Every structure is written in C-alpha cells, then in structure tokens.
C-alpha cells in the first residue's frame, strides 16, 4: 500500500536534502577541496575527523531523504534524530575552533527541519508510531 505524500512532506524532504548538501559542503571544506566561504573551519586541529563527521552526516541525510520521499514511517524519527545530531555536530565544530558564521546555514536549515518535524501535523502525516 502506497501512501499519499503531502506537499509539506515533499518540502521537508527537499529542505532535508538541502541540509545534506550543506553537510557535503562542510565535508569538502574540511578536506580543503572547497574554499572557506563564510568563515574558517577547523575541527580541533585535525580536519580529517571533521571531514569524517560531516561525511557521515551527508550519507545519513541522503538516506533519510529517500525515506521521506517514499513516506517510510521511520523517516520522521530518523530525521528528528539526525537534524538534532547535526546541530550537536555544529556545536562540536564551533567549540573545535570553527567560526559561527561558517555554520550559520547549517544551524538555520537543521533548526528549521527540527522545528517542522516536531509540529503535530507533520508527525500525523507519517501515521501511528512504529516500533524500531
């Protein structure tokens, strides 16, 4: 049985995909492939660990976008967890000597995704809670 995907969930999947693009951008910045556009990024003096952290976030967000697009009920839960994790990764990166301005897009997008996910209508669109 296929579910009808509401317009709001389509927008959520697109914005989560944008969060994945931002995470990929940070990965490439830590690998020194892309320029530091909004400010310097550094992860406790070891940029490889920052690249690994943000690379994993990129892969997780791509996986969650696919789950949202197919209306998998677990997609909502994983998106909440991953967007909260991304905000924590931003905090770790800022403490690790990166500038807040470099992570402003990630803070805004992941914050919006988390807030939108926690709205009652968004949760209701995925149906009853699923045991994992």
Give the helix/strand layout.
Elements: H1 7-30, H2 47-69, H3 74-95, H4 104-117, H5 120-125
Q: Can you walk me through this structure?
A:
The chain is mostly helical. It has one domain. Helix content is 67%, strand content 0%. The chain has five helices and no strands. It has helices spanning 7-30, 47-69, 74-95, 104-117, 120-125. Helix 1 packs antiparallel against helix 4 (104-117) and helix 3 (74-95) runs antiparallel to helix 4 (104-117). The longest helix has 24 residues, at 7-30. The protein starts with 6 loop residues before the first helix and ends in a 7-residue tail after the last helix.
Summarize it.
The protein has 5 helices and no strands. The chain is mainly α. The chain has one domain (17-125).
Strand content: under 5%
Largest sheet, strands/sense/barrel:
none
Radius of gyration: 15 Å
What percent of residues adopt helix (DSSP H or I)?
Answer: 55-70%
Domain tally: 1
Q: How many strand elements?
A: 0
Structural class: mainly alpha
Order of helices and strands: HHHHH
| Poorly predicted sequence stretches spanning 5 or more consecutive residues | none
Protein traits:
132 residues, mainly alpha, elongated, single chain
